[in-house]
Write a structure and sequence with these properties.
four-stranded mixed β-sheet, three-stranded parallel β-sheet, 42% helix, 13% strand, binds ligand V47, binds iron/sulfur cluster
């Protein structure tokens, strides 16, 4: 392959060969490749692996995001979204949330529910919402709560994680989104989200969920005060858990957006940094089938570009229902895409659009 000629004699040559032979990289090799490889080399490798895993397919789904409240018991420094008690914010009633689902009719296959960590809402409160949603739309998939919301909700209900997750599953919870992972490193994490659960606790929620047959997603929050070593360490911990349980569906890098939060002085990393991060995720996370570009956060144009750097999933149509990123300065202030727009974006990149359900079974190929 031409790429082998390009890296001949360079210190990264043996690492590139390993990736081409689909051998797993160590943490040290991951760091070295990340530091030393040119963007085009990382892009080639990531694209090669994506092609092997997913061929020409780019997945999307039709979903609705519900953000029940922006009241939060925590105060993460990167968050532009939370409002403390007494400050202006929102708190939807269960009836209002149910109405949001009803309005979508059969246009969606998934309801994604993530919000602030509400001081009082517990397993029983949300459980009632889940069963009402399922009564109305028995076939809709409920993907709900970051690991930090789950652990708080369980504590609030005086249940162990296992009991709380099992109860939520019985009420209708089908899977768990990937938020709250931020960055696992024990020195960096408390600097950006001091009150939040530890890395160990985040991993425990996902492990327990997987053991109970609840699949989940994983994220990283990158582009703030973390280094390349911290990013690879984060990938490594996820890869290890995935080896144990196989319960992760997809990995979603989340770029730190700098508007209206306590870390705004840091600014945002460049597109080059975005591309490298996505490509390295695709290369290092050999046991994850899918890498998602969450377009409301990264922007439609860059999401489309990332299809050539390891990405095979675009998340969903969203339906103008998420504020997490618009408040943090994302370009799209009311994110929504029709299925036709989604397909056009994918086809313009020379790929085949595939509508999936929430666990990546194919619903329709375009
Ligand atoms: O945990 C908050 C992130 C997450 C900012 O699993 C920020 O399919 C960047 O979980 N800049 C919540 N990121 C969102 C989330 C999610 C989103 C899309 C898809 C899925 C999925 C999950 O949002 C938080 C945090 O990491 N976040 N503020 C910010 N200023
Ligand atoms: Fe609360 Fe989540 Fe914002 Fe942290 S990121 S302050 S947990 S809403």
């Amino acid at each position: 392959m031409i790429i082998e000629t390009l890296v001949k004699g360079q210190s990264i040559e043996p690492i590139v060969k390993k990736v081409l032979q689909q051998q797993r990289l160590t943490v040290e090799e991951g760091v070295q490749l990340y530091r030393e490889a040119d963007l085009s080399i990382l892009g080639f490798l990531a694209n090669h692996i994506r092609q092997l895993k997913n061929g020409d397919k780019v997945y999307f789904n039709r979903n609705l995001h519900i953000e029940p409240t922006n009241q939060c018991v925590y105060a993460c420094k990167f968050c532009s979204y939370y409002r403390k008690k007494g400050e202006m914010g929102w708190e939807y009633s269960r009836e209002e949330m149910l109405e949001q689902v009803e309005k979508m009719g059969n246009d969606i296959t998934e309801v994604h529910i993530v919000g602030g960590v509400h001081p009082r809402w517990d397993v029983e409160y949300y459980g009632q919402l889940f069963s009402d949603i399922k009564k109305m739309r028995p076939d809709v998939h409920i993907k709900a709560f970051t690991a930090v919301e789950i652990s708080y909700i369980c504590k609030r209900s005086k249940m162990s994680l296992r009991e709380g997750l099992q109860a939520l599953k019985n009420y209708g919870l089908d899977s768990i989104p990937g938020g709250g992972a931020e960055i696992f490193d024990e020195k960096i994490r408390p600097q950006i989200c001091p009150q939040k659960d530890t890395a160990e606790e985040w991993l425990e929620v996902h492990q327990t969920a997987h053991e109970l047959g609840i699949p989940s997603n994983a994220t990283i929050l990158y582009g703030h005060i973390e280094s390349i070593e911290h990013r690879i360490d984060h990938f490594y911990r996820l890869r290890k858990l995935q080896d144990q349980t196989g319960g992760f569906n997809v990995f979603i890098p989340l770029k730190y957006k700098a508007a209206n939060n306590e870390m705004a002085h840091l600014g945002e990393v460049s597109v080059i940094e975005d591309i490298k991060l996505y490509a390295m995720a695709r290369i290092f996370l050999d046991n994850f089938n899918h890498i998602k570009a969450y377009w409301p956060m990264i922007g439609k144009d860059i999401a489309q570009l990332l299809l050539s750097f390891g990405v095979d999933d675009f998340d969903g149509t969203i339906n103008d229902s998420t504020k997490i990123y618009s408040l943090a300065g994302a370009e799209d202030q009311s994110p929504s895409m029709t299925t036709q727009q989604m397909i056009a974006m994918i086809e313009a990149a020379g790929r085949k659009a595939v509508e999936r359900n929430s666990v990546y079974n194919i619903l329709k190929e375009y």
